[in-house]
């Protein structure tokens, strides 16, 4: 829950409002309906969707989602899961009555554990989640990114703290201007690693 939550918050805070929910959705779908965690993620998913629709000038969609998201978050403690929910609830109330507010000022950042984390603040595991989420959002195939994380985990288990795959995942998430080049490098390293492993398997 923690890693998924934090990755989605950072994705949202960096302005990828539509993509943020993908960090939460699979986990949310597995939760029992009506639990606090389920209500939190349901509310956050609809909050980010409301912001996205408002920025796309879909006023009706934004107001409906804002009203629904507020209901999901309304009864949770103000600091549930170390999130500051009051600014989110206030923003939802405003969006529900005035969705055009997003044209006058930026949506509020989500605060988690005392700060508003961005992609640059994520650790290895949360960066991997963000990379897999952002790849299709930005027009890249997610499969090489997912495989890079698999190889990175194997390297960590083998005690290789300087894994090339870890570095490339960090760079893919953080370096927006060079993301295309980094993706090609990542894909190349994945293809070479996969070919080596297939060659080894062919020996047995």
TrEMBL record:
Q: Which Pfam families match?
A: DUF309
Superkingdom in the source lineage? Archaea
Q: Which InterPro entries match?
A: DUF309 (IPR005500), TTHA0068_sf (IPR023203)
Q: What is this protein called?
A: DUF309 domain-containing protein
Q: Per the UniProt entry, what species is this protein from, by scientific name? A: Natronococcus pandeyae
Q: What is the lineage of its organism?
A: Archaea, Methanobacteriati, Methanobacteriota, Stenosarchaea group, Halobacteria
């Amino acid at each position: 829950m923690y890693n998924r939550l934090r990755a989605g918050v950072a994705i949202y805070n960096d302005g990828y409002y539509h993509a943020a929910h993908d960090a939460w959705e699979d986990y949310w779908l597995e939760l029992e309906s009506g639990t606090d965690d389920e209500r939190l993620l349901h509310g956050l998913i609809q909050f980010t969707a409301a912001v996205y629709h408002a920025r796309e000038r879909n006023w009706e969609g934004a107001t409906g989602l804002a009203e629904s998201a507020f209901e999901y978050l309304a009864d949770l403690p103000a600091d549930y899961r170390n999130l500051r929910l009051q600014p989110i609830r206030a923003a939802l109330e405003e969006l529900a009555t005035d969705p055009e507010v997003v044209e006058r000022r930026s949506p509020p950042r989500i605060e988690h554990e005392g700060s508003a984390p961005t992609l640059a603040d994520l650790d290895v595991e949360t960066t991997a989640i963000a990379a897999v989420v952002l790849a299709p959002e930005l027009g890249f195939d997610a499969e090489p990114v997912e495989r890079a994380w698999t190889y990175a985990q194997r390297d960590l288990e083998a005690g290789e703290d300087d894994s090339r795959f870890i570095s490339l995942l960090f760079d893919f998430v953080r370096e927006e201007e060079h993301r295309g080049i980094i993706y090609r490098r990542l894909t190349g390293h994945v293809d070479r690693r996969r070919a080596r492993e297939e060659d080894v398997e062919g020996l047995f």
